[in-house]
Write a structure and sequence with these properties.
mainly alpha
């Protein structure tokens, strides 16, 4: 297991994909800081050309709770895309580069290979979340946002990390689709479909019954945060099913072609 994880980390280190994902989360943190900067003084932002003269920003304040709320909401939506791309690259590259047969020829159990891949994905995504939180804290400190306290910090970090974990779990079925599609495109299609359907189902008011809508609801994207136990259980079951199904596919599928 350690050897397989080391190989997967080596693949990631020699790729530009980690840098792309890091830049994506950096942009998220910077956009959050920009929104807080605008909300601190909307008139100043208008004079600087940062917001249109007819734009109306209602119900938002520039403080630490709002800043953490934005980071959580961005993780729910953007995380699904970025984490999904990580899964697609980790699993789809073996078929895109025709290295899947080489893996199957190794004296290593297929389940071990899949478990190592999921472990690397989880570590990769958690590093991105830590990066987002560190940048978010630094930007909030530079802007001098009010409302800082230990309770606000703890609640904000727990909220962002919790939403990130839910989102990561929901990307395991995307890994399965990438494997079944033997490349990147099928996984990308599944990821786009999941994000699209999550928005539609949540807008219809049935988000708590659709696992891919749960992270957005938990982040407060649709109003007050909704993180009921049934929704969390649904996400965990979906994530576990995706991981198990991926391992089963690798054990049973015909890789001759």
């Amino acid at each position: 297991m350690i050897a397989v994880i080391a190989v997967e980390l080596l693949k990631a280190r020699r790729s530009r994909v980690p840098w792309v994902t890091a830049i994506a989360f950096t942009v998220v943190a910077l956009v959050g800081g920009l929104f807080m900067f605008i909300l601190q003084d909307v008139d100043r932002a208008r004079t600087m050309g940062l917001v249109g003269t007819k734009a109306a920003l209602v119900g938002a304040t520039a403080d630490w709770p709002a800043h953490f709320s934005f980071l959580a909401q961005s993780t729910a939506v953007g995380g699904m895309i970025v984490f999904g791309l990580v899964q697609i690259w980790i699993f789809g590259r073996e078929f895109a580069r025709h290295t899947a047969k080489d893996l199957l020829a190794l004296p290593t159990a297929r389940v071990t290979i899949i478990a190592a891949k999921f472990a690397v994905v989880a570590a990769w995504c958690l590093v991105l979340v830590v990066q987002l939180l560190v940048l978010g804290l630094a930007i909030g400190a530079v802007l001098g946002l009010p409302g800082w306290s230990a309770d606000v910090l703890l609640a904000g970090v727990v909220r962002v990390v919790g939403v990130a974990l839910l989102t990561m779990l929901l990307t395991t079925p995307i890994a399965l689709v990438a494997c079944m599609g033997r490349g990147y495109l099928a996984g990308v299609g599944a990821m786009i479909a999941a994000v699209f359907c999550a928005q539609i189902v949540a807008a219809l008011g049935y988000g708590q019954f659709f696992p891919w809508s749960v992270p957005a609801l938990a982040s407060g994207l649709a109003g007050e945060p909704e993180s009921g136990l049934p929704g969390i259980v649904l996400v965990v079951v979906t994530g576990a099913a995706g991981a198990v199904a991926t391992a089963w596919w690798w054990r049973q599928a015909d890789h001759a072609d």
